[in-house]
Amino acid sequence: MGGRRGKRRTRLLSLTLAASALVALTVFGGTAASAPVQLTEVRVVSLPIANGLPLDLGIRKGFFAQQRIEIRKTTLQSGNDVVLALANNNGDIGYLGFVPMFIAVTNNIPLTLSAASEVEGTSAADNWQNILVRSNSSIRSVRDLAGKTIAVNALKGVGEVMIKAALEKRGVRINSIRLIAIPFPQMRSALNNGQVDAIWVPEPFLSQALNIDNARIVLAPGPVMGRYFPIGGYAARQSWRSRNAAVAERFRRAMNRSLVYAQTHPAEIRAMLPAGTQNVRLPIWSPVIDRGKLQQLATYTRRYGVISRSPNLRQLVPSSIASGLVLQGTVQGRRVLLRHEGRIVTRLAAGPYTFVVTDNSRRHNFRLVGPRVNQRTSIRGTGRSTWTVNLRAGTYRYWSAGRPGVRKTFRVR
Question: What pTM did the predictor assign?
Answer without folding.
Answer: 0.84
